[in-house]
């Protein structure tokens, strides 16, 4: 599929878990400038894509990723490796935005289950390493607003200005209807200082545990987006080219995974097969089960540099 170059860069830079090629066609029909305004918060953001039909090899350009890494290295301070025995605890404010007819009004039980999922994921309970990062639900806000719920990208600035709570170290999660395509997106920690109100994670309300989004309702959209919130790139950042995703122990990967393609090796000249089980890939939720030690160290580095 040939795409509009400017909007494709917009989608790549903003990120977004796009669930189907139909959704991409809808996005491509949008005029360039309004599309950029509605899809992108200021600064960088990133997410997932769930269908190989939507070819999005880099959610960030190599230049954008390099700049974010430069900022991280400049701000980094010497530190110990993540310590699961003394974990960092992150307060979470969960913003439930729903329609007037009740659609999207997540129960407190569901929200609690979502927090449990990311705690298990970051704690290595599904597999992979314990990152030494933990989450505690601080509060839940509930807003009934049809426009915010169904067209969050248009009203994101006003919604976040009204709703966002806490500082750089508070994870704000916004649950809305992102339509048939996007499943979630997040901001990077490097961008907090210049636009604190934009900071946070946005998910489609159907991606929570039991939410009904086919292949994506175990809660790992939030896991993935929270990884971005801590500064991680996709595993397929830069494809087979150096420096990849800037993490030493994640194998190179030419493009995003879809489904759960065991044994796939898109960079045969590089060590290891594709990291299809990594939370920072686009595999289906049941396929995802790990962060690596290198990713844990990078998240801790970004946390210390930008969120403490």
Automatic annotation (TrEMBL):
Q: Which is one Pfam family of this protein?
A: Peptidase_M43
Q: Example GO biological process term?
A: proteolysis
Q: Which residue intervals define the domain Peptidase M43 pregnancy-associated plasma-A in the entry?
A: 219-300
CDD domains for this protein: ZnMc_pappalysin_like
Work out whether the entry's keyword set contains Repeat.
Answer: no
Instruction: Could you list this entry's UniProt keywords, alphabetically sorted.
Output: Disulfide bond, Hydrolase, Metal-binding, Metalloprotease, Protease, Signal, Zinc
Q: Which GO terms describe its molecular function?
A: metal ion binding; metallopeptidase activity
User: Transmembrane segments in this chain: where?
Assistant: none
Carries keyword Nucleotide-binding? no
- The domain of life is Bacteria
Entry's family note = Belongs to the peptidase M43B family.
Q: Which PANTHER family match?
A: METALLOPROTEASE MEP1 (AFU_ORTHOLOGUE AFUA_1G07730)-RELATED, PTHR47466
Q: What is this protein called?
A: Zinc metalloprotease
Which species is this record about? Nocardiopsis ansamitocini
- Give the taxonomic lineage as stored in the record: Bacteria, Bacillati, Actinomycetota, Actinomycetes, Streptosporangiales
